[in-house]
């Protein structure tokens, strides 16, 4: 496979665009000047460091090349190519032999050696492949980039098929075993990807990232959007540069590159990794005196606040100034800079006060107050805030929707509480298509929970579900209900867990945190608080206190609705125990059968003693699925 390569120009060790004697301005990590190749002249001519030597490219007229070619075209364009090239080389005080020697020895002089040679060969190949790839051009266009802009930063395209690249390497003098050794993750994925070279502070490529072309979001959607084709350090901030005293740390690489293209200096990316002490050390060694951390807004505000606090502690431990900025929901550095310009972001950073532990708490509080107001004012007056219970419209309205909170449910007779929770679970899944319900069956085997849900969907008894029925119409209903239940599970809208060792509290919390990172609208239902294992909080002697504390911790840590059932006792008109369950719950649900056989649900607010909701319930005589009785 023959690919024509650009002529390799002077190494950055020998020369620099500043020797051209033209006005230059620092623009991000690059230099910018007026382009002499088109009229009227515009400041659209970029000089950029490409794999160890300087090149130029005009984003308006498309002129590009190395510094020798720049001189040939700008100063000696009246001469033939051979003479013009000789004059340009004389300007630099170099010869073709000098260029060849420096090109051959560059990798030996720099840290990286053979690995850098292999990675730079891969970058050149992907750079060429990008110019032939329609999917790359379409992806970049959708992100507001064109190919010329992308190639200033060495972005390229890799099809996922290594064989053409191996052929290219042979033509470039590289052995196949060298490529396999240094690009050891080349076979990790065969998906087409945009390639992004990652350089250390000396400009040497230490890794090449690949990003899926069909994934426009952040790494929260199935297959990881980012992979590294070469094993190596993952804690070097992307786009790191020397002599930047106040780096701006962002999350995605497009955030960093768009800001850099807009002329904002010192913008680096953690490539969606949490900012760590190792990142901090790398930036400090490059001259950082302060850090500005710019983050996308997460749904779990508590986790994000704890992360920012940790970063603040790191910066203070290294005597560095620190600022943190949480962008509005749905916004990124990329979108803000494109919509408002680089100066807009810089003004936000300049107007943000430096963080200390005290000022950080204050700024988080003020931001939460403003956000709380803005969120409330954006809602329609007649809408319910939380999730909908489709068969309990009056209850949904009384609670203003099922919102994050701890709801405790019990019943008399006790078995009705499982039917009520199962009814709620189906209502939440059916009425909220973007939500996921995790039903934890601690009071019964998981198979029994299957039977109960299928019976409720089909409108038949659990006994009918457990065996073939003589009535084919009932069998057809059971089959259709089973398929519907399977559909909920396959679409990741319902999971049913049973009691295992993993339901020790700390392990349960960890598992739910993982679920929440993948499904933001999560609802937890635990049927059987009396069987919840508590492996921590040994400082609380009473078991019921520990269980109740665990329920509150789940709600507070995850910020989701948590329904929990358990046994309580009643004396006259009052529920009396266990007291922690009732005292700590945001609302208590009590189901009881009256003397006339009617089933009633009463909901009391936390600590108020007042009844929020009371209604007669209808339920199927066969499946026991419950719903409100219409007034």
Care to describe what's here?
The chain has 631 residues and is α/β, with parallel strands linked by helices. The chain is 40% helix and 20% strand. It contains 22 helices and 24 strands. A hairpin with a 5-residue loop joins β22 and β23 (611-619). The radius of gyration is 32 Å and the shape is elongated. Mean pLDDT is 84; it is low at 1-13, 98-111 and 216-222.
Q: What oligomeric assembly is this protein in?
A: single chain
Unreliable residue runs: 1-13, 98-111, 216-222
How many β-strand runs? 24
Biggest sheet character: 9 strands, mixed
At a glance:
By secondary structure, this protein is an alpha/beta fold. A nine-stranded mixed sheet has the order 16-15-17-18-14-21-22-23-24.
Which descriptors apply to this entry?
single chain; 631 residues; alpha/beta; nine-stranded mixed beta sheet; 22 helices; 24 strands
What is the secondary structure topology, with strand pairs?
Blueprint lengths: L24 E3 L2 E4 L11 E6 L2 E6 L5 E3 H8 L6 H12 L3 H14 L3 H20 L1 H9 L4 H6 L3 E3 L3 H10 L4 H7 L10 E7 L5 E8 L13 E3 L19 E3 L2 H9 L5 E3 L7 H9 L4 E6 L5 H17 L3 E6 L6 H8 L1 H10 L5 H21 L15 H6 L6 E8 L3 H16 L4 E6 L4 H13 L3 H4 L6 H19 L3 E5 L6 H14 L3 E6 L15 H16 L2 E5 L3 E3 L2 E4 L1 H6 L2 E7 L5 E7 L5 E9 L6 E3 L3
Parallel strand pairs: 10-11, 10-12, 12-13, 14-18, 14-21, 15-16, 15-17, 17-18
Antiparallel strand pairs: 1-2, 2-3, 3-4, 4-5, 6-7, 7-8, 8-9, 19-20, 21-22, 22-23, 23-24
């Amino acid at each position: 496979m023959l690919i024509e390569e650009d002529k390799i120009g002077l190494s950055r060790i020998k020369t620099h665009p500043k020797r051209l004697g033209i006005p230059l301005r620092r623009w991000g990590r690059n230099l910018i000047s007026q382009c002499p190749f088109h009229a009227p002249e515009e400041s659209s001519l970029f000089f950029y460091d490409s794999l160890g030597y300087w090149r130029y490219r005009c984003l308006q007229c498309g002129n590009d090349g190395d510094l020798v070619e720049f001189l040939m075209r700008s100063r000696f364009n009246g001469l033939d190519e051979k003479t013009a090239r000789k004059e340009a080389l004389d300007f630099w005080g170099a010869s073709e032999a000098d260029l060849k020697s420096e090109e051959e020895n560059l990798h030996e002089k720099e840290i990286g050696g053979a690995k850098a040679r292999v990675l730079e060969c891969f970058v050149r190949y992907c750079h060429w492949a990008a110019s032939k790839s329609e999917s790359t051009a379409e992806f970049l266009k959708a992100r507001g980039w064109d190919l010329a802009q992308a190639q200033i930063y060495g972005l390229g395209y890799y099809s996922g098929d290594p064989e053409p690249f191996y052929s290219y390497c042979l033509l470039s003098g590289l052995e196949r075993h060298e490529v396999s050794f240094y690009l050891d993750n080349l076979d990790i994925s065969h998906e087409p990807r945009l390639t992004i070279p990652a350089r250390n502070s000396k400009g040497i490529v230490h890794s090449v990232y690949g990003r899926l072309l069909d994934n426009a979001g952040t790494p929260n959607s199935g297959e990881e959007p980012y992979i590294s084709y070469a094993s190596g350090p993952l804690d070097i901030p992307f786009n790191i540069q020397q002599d930047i005293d106040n780096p701006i740390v962002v999350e995605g690489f497009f955030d960093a590159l768009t800001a850099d293209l807009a002329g904002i200096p010192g913008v680096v990316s953690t490539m969606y990794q949490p900012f760590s002490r190792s990142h901090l050390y790398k930036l400090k060694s490059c001259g950082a005196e302060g850090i500005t951390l710019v983050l996308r807004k997460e749904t779990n505000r508590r986790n994000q606040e704890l992360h920012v606090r940790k970063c603040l502690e790191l910066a203070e431990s290294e005597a560095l100034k620190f600022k943190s900025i949480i962008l509005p929901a749905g916004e990124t550095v990329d979108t803000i800079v494109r919509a408002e310009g680089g100066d807009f972001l810089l003004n936000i950073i300049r107007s943000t006060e430096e963080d200390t532990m005290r000022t950080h708490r204050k700024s988080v509080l003020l931001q939460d107050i403003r956000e709380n107001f803005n969120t409330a004012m954006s809602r329609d007056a007649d809408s319910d805030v939380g999730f909908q219970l489709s068969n309990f419209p009056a209850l949904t309205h009384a609670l203003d929707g099922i919102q994050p909170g701890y709801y405790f449910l019990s019943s008399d007779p006790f078995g009705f509480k499982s039917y009520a929770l199962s009814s709620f679970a189906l209502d939440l899944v059916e009425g909220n298509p973007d939500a996921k319900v995790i039903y934890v069956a601690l009071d019964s085997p998981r198979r029994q929970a299957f039977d109960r849900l299928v019976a409720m969907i089909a409108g038949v008894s659990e006994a009918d579900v457990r065996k073939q029925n003589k009535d084919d119409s009932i069998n057809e209903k059971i089959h259709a209900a089973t398929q519907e239940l399977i559909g909920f599970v396959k679409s990741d809208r319902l999971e049913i867990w049973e009691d295992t060792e993993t339901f020790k509290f700390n392990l349960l919390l960890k598992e739910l945190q993982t679920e929440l990172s993948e499904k933001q609208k999560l609802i937890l239902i635990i049927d059987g608080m009396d069987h919840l294992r508590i492996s921590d909080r040994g400082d609380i002697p009473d078991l019921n206190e520990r269980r109740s504390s665990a329920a509150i911790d789940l709600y507070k840590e995850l910020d989701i609705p948590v329904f929990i059932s358990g046994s309580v006792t009643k004396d006259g008109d009052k529920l009396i125990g266990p007291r922690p369950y009732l005292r700590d719950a945001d609302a208590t649900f009590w189901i009881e059968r009256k003397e006339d056989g009617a089933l009633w649900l009463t909901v009391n607010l936390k600590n108020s003693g007042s009844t929020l909701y009371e209604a007669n319930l209808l339920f199927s005589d066969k499946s026991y699925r419950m719903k409100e009785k219409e007034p």
